[in-house]
C-alpha cells in the first residue's frame, strides 16, 4: 500500500468519482449510437468489447476497448494529480467496481478486462504493458478472450513484484480475485470446452 497522506473524506470523494467514471457503460452507449441493438440481448448479454464484437461491428468493439480502458486511466490520473497516490489506488479500485457493478444497470456490468488494463497502465505503465502483452499473447495463442484475461490477471501480481511496484501489490491481488470471480462462468465453460472463441457468436 502507498503511504496514506490523504484524509478520509478525500479518499471517499475519489472513491465516488472513480466509481462514477468506471460505471459509464461505453459498450451500451456505442451500441445505441451505432444502431447495434441492446447488448443485453446479444451473445452473452455482457456490455463489454467482446460482446460488442459479436454484433459484427469491429469499430464499435475497438472503441469500447479504448473507452473502457480510458475511463480507468482518467480516474487514476485525476486522483494522482489532485490528491495523491493513495487516492489514485482508491479511485482505481472504485473505477473497476463501477464498471463491473454500475448502479445505472442494476449492478450488472462488464467483466472489467479493458478497464483493468487501463488501470494498470495508469498506475504503473511497465506493469500495464506486461499485462497487455500477456493478454495479447494468450489471445493469439488460444483465440479465447476470457482465457487471455484470466492469464493477464493471474500474472499481474507477478509482474507487480518483478517490476518493483510492491506498493500496489494488495490492489493487484484485489483485481486478480475480482477478475477471476467475474469470469467464473467462463472458467467453467473453458473446462468443458464450450467457451466461444474470439469472433464467434
Brief characterization of the structure:
The protein contains 10 helices and no strands. The chain has 201 residues and is mainly α.
How is this structure best described in words?
This protein is mostly helical and 201 residues long. It is built from 10 helices and no strands. Helix 5 runs antiparallel to helix 6, helix 6 packs antiparallel against helix 7 and helix 8 runs antiparallel to helix 9. The longest helix has 25 residues. It is globular and about 45 Å long. The N and C termini lie far apart (41 Å).
What layout of secondary structure does this protein have?
Layout: H1 8-22, H2 26-33, H3 49-53, H4 58-82, H5 85-100, H6 113-123, H7 125-142, H8 145-162, H9 169-182, H10 184-192
Helix pairs in contact: 1-4, 1-5, 2-4, 4-5, 4-6, 5-6, 5-9, 6-7, 7-8, 8-9
Give the overall average pLDDT.
Answer: 92
Helix share of residues? 55-70%
**Amino- and carboxy-terminal Cα gap:** 41 Å
**Radius of gyration in whole Å, from Cα?**
16 Å
What general form does the structure show? globular
Label the structural class.
Answer: mainly alpha
Low-confidence stretches: none
> β content, as a range?
under 5%
List how many beta strands DSSP finds. 0
Biggest β-sheet description: none
Number of helices: 10
Secondary-structure element series: HHHHHHHHHH
Amino acid at each position: 500500500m502507498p503511504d496514506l497522506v490523504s484524509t478520509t473524506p478525500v479518499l471517499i470523494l475519489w472513491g465516488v468519482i472513480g466509481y462514477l467514471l468506471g460505471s459509464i457503460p461505453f459498450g451500451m452507449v456505442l451500441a445505441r449510437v451505432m444502431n447495434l441493438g441492446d447488448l443485453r440481448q446479444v451473445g452473452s448479454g455482457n456490455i463489454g468489447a467482446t460482446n460488442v464484437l459479436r454484433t459484427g461491428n469491429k469499430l464499435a468493439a475497438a472503441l469500447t476497448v479504448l473507452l473502457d480502458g480510458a475511463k480507468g486511466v482518467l480516474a487514476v490520473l485525476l486522483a494522482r494529480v489532485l490528491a495523491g497516490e493513495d487516492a489514485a489506488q482508491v479511485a482505481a479500485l472504485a473505477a473497476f467496481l463501477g464498471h463491473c457493478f454500475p448502479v445505472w444497470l442494476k449492478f450488472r456490468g462488464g467483466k472489467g478486462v479493458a478497464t483493468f488494463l487501463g488501470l494498470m497502465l495508469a498506475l504503473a505503465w511497465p506493469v500495464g504493458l506486461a499485462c497487455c502483452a500477456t493478454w495479447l499473447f494468450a489471445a493469439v495463442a488460444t483465440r479465447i478472450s476470457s482465457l487471455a484475461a484470466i492469464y493477464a490477471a493471474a500474472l499481474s501480481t507477478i509482474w507487480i513484484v518483478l517490476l518493483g511496484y510492491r506498493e500496489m501489490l494488495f490492489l493487484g491481488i484485489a483485481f486478480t480475485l475480482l477478475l477471476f470471480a467475474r469470469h467464473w462462468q467462463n472458467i467453467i465453460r473453458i473446462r468443458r470446452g464450450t467457451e466461444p472463441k474470439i469472433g464467434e457468436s
